[in-house]
# Entry
Amino acid sequence: MKAVSPSDFFAINDVLCRFFLSFDRRDWALMSNCLSSLVFIDYTSSGREKPSTMSGMDFVRRRENAVDNLAKHHSFSNLLVAYEQDEDTVSARCNYLILRFADCQSADIAGDNFFHSCGDYEFLLSRADEHWKIKSITQHALQSWGNRSLHGGSQPGA
# Structure
């Protein structure tokens, strides 16, 4: 694998920032703009969905149904990016920390009204019409704590 150009690194970082921010702001249109038409996902390490390929719109709908009722804060760090076989496909790896709270409007956030997790993500992105799009997401969960039932996507089969 070959190191990416500085301009591609910043563009990839921007796509991932917008992707994670879309969860926090419940901006599903923004999320959709970050994704390829087909997306491979693998959340098995967190006990969630089995690996599968779905449309970008199906991915957005699943995330919306799983976490739209939570206040969220996604952070990522230690971003590594490299070209794959050509300069139109890159792999990206980053650590993550996700803080999730029951909606402050409807619940007391003390006690078990939170569900947090950390680990790392591996992404594949491809260039389409001069824009980078996420085409693969693999999560490697390290640790989760709190009330797992708050996160609809953490339920088996979700």
